[in-house]
Design a protein that fits this description.
The protein is an alpha+beta fold and about 60 residues long. It has one domain. The protein is about 20% helix and about 30% strand. The chain has a 4-stranded antiparallel beta sheet. A hairpin with a 4-residue loop joins strand 2 and strand 3. The chain is globular, with a radius of gyration of 12 Å. InterPro entries: DUF397 (IPR007278). It comes from Actinomadura spongiicola. This is DUF397 domain-containing protein.
């Protein structure tokens, strides 16, 4: 079951028209990612370790 996320933050790389990717955190520490251009966007849920690996791959371009 997807946890309730809070503190959603917009990506600095998002478009100025409001279409963006947002990241939030659940009480238990998991990280949620959603796409605001989709009316009922699914939320991808990552553990802190998975999120760190994901960001590392993005930064390296792999």
């Amino acid at each position: 079951m997807t946890q309730m996320f809070h503190g959603w933050r917009k990506s600095r790389h998002s478009e100025p028209n409001g279409h963006c990717i947002e990241v939030g955190r659940a009480i238990h520490g998991t990280i949620g990612v959603r796409d605001t251009k989709l009316h009922h966007s699914p939320i991808l849920e990552f553990s802190p370790a998975e999120w760190a690996r994901f960001l590392e791959h993005i930064r390296r371009g792999t």
